[in-house]
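QA checklist item 7 of 12: single-chain prediction sanity check.
[x] sequence parsed
[x] length recorded as 173
[x] structure emitted
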Amino acid sequence: MTGERAILGAILAGGQSRRFGSDKALAMVDGAPMIEIVIAALGPQVDALAVCGRDWPGLTSLDDRPGGGAGPLAGLNAALHHAATRGYAGVLAVPVDVLPLPPDLRALLVGEGAATFSQQHAVGYWPASLAGRLDTYLAQGHRRIDGWIALAGARRVDEPLPMRNINRREDLL
């Protein structure tokens, strides 16, 4: 059992990178694979790290829940269930393709309820108690993160620095 306020960091990295043309997690940014940059930024801010939708050396790997192309919410769902069964208070989730992450991400988002950034809303904090609700949302065929944000009652927080979502190779420039 972890501490009452322990937070699981989850890197959402199960996408197919169709628009990018190759595995985004392995794309080099400033001499390092994008996933390593995210690990380095998120790791010090959480009590444990997991990667959703892929295997990565040294990290707990979580299969999307449900599998079969349910998008980033399937990775978040896997992380929420992992957190709930292991006693974490919640999940600080970040996609592998949003950079840079603020060094005070935990302080900005972790609180009593769910929270996301205003623009980069796939970056968010989700109490582990929401695991069952996300299961139901996905089972009903929903996949849109904005619908999940509304259902979860997440508060919106303004980004403290410019962040970019890297969807295409030209977004790396």
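[x] summary fact logged: The radius of gyration is 15 Å.
[ ] second reviewer sign-off
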